[in-house]
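Write out the 3D structure for:
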Amino acid sequence: MLKVFRFVPGQFCFFLIAGILVGSNFKVEPKYLFPILLILLSCLLGSYYFSNKTFQRRYHFNFIAYALVLVIGITSTSIHKDKFYKNHYSYKLDQNNLAEARILEVLAPSNYHNKYVVEIEIINGESVFGKVLFNLEKDSFPNYSVDNRLFLNPEFREVNKPLNPYYFNYRKYLERKEIYHQVTSNRSEVLMLTNDKTTLLGLTETVRKSINSALEKQGFKENELAVMNALLLGQRSEVSKELLQSYANAGAIHILALSGLHVGIILLLLNFILKPIERLRFGKSLKLMLIIAFLWSFAFVAGMSPSIIRAVTMFTAVAIGWQSKRPTNVFHTLVMSMFVLLLFRPSFLFEVGFQLSYLTVYAIVLIQPLIYNIWKPKFKISDYLWQLLTVSIAAQLGILPLSLFYFHQFPGLFFISNLIIIPFLGFILGCGFLVIILSLLNLLPKQLFELYNEVISYMNSAVDWIGRQESFLFREIPMTLLKMLACYLFLMALISIFKRWTYSRMMFLLISILMLQGVVIYEEYNVKSKSEWIVFHKSRQSIFGKRIGGNVKINHSLDSTQILEENILKQYKLGVGNVDLITKNEMIKVEMFRDETILIIDSLGLYKVPDMNLSIVVLRESPKINLERVLESLQPKIIVADGSNYKSYVQRWEETCIQQKTPFHYTGQKGTFVLKK
């Protein structure tokens, strides 16, 4: 692993990533960065000149080069921030807006809305740019497609932050994609305009629709067609939530996400099929051009996602290496592809698929040979299965800390699903492309259709059965960022010691173990030393929590069976760490915490408590009270209203608090109320 950093582009990639992280967390306008780039470039050229025009080790030259790449990373990130440009739509908004927009991407629908990413092109008569999340109420009309132009009278709203702690921050996720507002409309409020041009994304969508239409005519079932779309066209939006969950539980979700595994198999298939072309004059060059053309055509149809671009870039280099008879270093190829992708699309760094994709390949190359050498099978079939098993184990080890950080679960039977599917993945992909071509030509034989449909169906059934083995699915595993980094440091030390046993590597391993233990002890201490009182947000219900160290007492108004499956508490426990939840289906009237006395007023509206200095009043279940009298009588520091109250009551209470100059906190707007010690 450390060899990567001895490779100059590996060092540059490190500083580029550092620059992207700085640029993402600090707002620096490009106009301030360009002069710095110019100065650093001049210094680099001067350093090169005064070093006798050689690339010998000169520390001042290295330092300037690293600084230049760091600033390039910051600049690239800043250039891609839409809000730095004055013609961004957000600077042209008025109370009543008329906009023309173009659909860029069709997203997976929710229960009540079809979702799209649209580009605002004109607003209130001015040419602008910027992406918006467009929610369209579901109806019986056909859905819109990429490149469709729409006329809207939109109300731009910011995407809500998560209302409860440790939830997925969808707002931050969209901001990484330069989406800052959402618009919700129904069909009657949208006017479709004539298309004035066809973009590359629109052409891709048209090709996929043609393929899907041809496949539907052949009679493929819904689940089978959805899996074919994921495997062959890179579109998972049609796969049902239940089927996706089955693949995730079985540890086979990567099968549905196009990546290096799929592109590598396609390269091998193409190399085998096009082998006869080598006999022709200039046949090898022609074969190489055909392979590269097919790989990038596949990436084009698959939607040019980060993982597929990375994989196609890498395997293009591998194909060129095969043609030139030169050995290709996988690490160098990966680093070069990562550097180029991040240089032009720095936001890729924050995409989970991009991170998992690179880590998987690194892990397979580094770890698989070490595991494979433990046992050398004598027979070909056992050797083939052993290779598949070691590849699967290596990939899982490489992505395990990151997977736990994002998804908090580990599928114990991942190796079974991989042993079942991966041996046949070459057939599934190769036969799938043949099925698509024959379907487009309307020449698909019935026997081939039935065979392929059954293969996909059996694969789905096998994955579903494995995914239902709940005893081998380990859920709700807490993993913090600090612990994840410590785990990867330990994994790197373990790999290095397995490769070669030296004193320095042994010390590295011991230090990594101590650091991991230190992180665990620090986080445990952090959990035990904190206390807080919490009002969670739950629509139409009340959930209060009192945490003293590692114990959390939950008072709630839910059914006793509902509270066990409540996602609010699951996410809280995962975020906080190793705490014990004690739930009680009863609501308290008065709570003492720290030096604060908290009064909870429910639907009965009782609030007269003698001889008690109240500082916080919590309103739940829409009590019919005169809040002005409550404020006069109790004089609290703050009024808190949870999600069990009617919104009309909340609005009236907020107005009263503004008049009385008393702070007001509504969990439906500001999120969870937390009182910390």
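Residues 18 and 70 are 6 Å apart (CA to CA).
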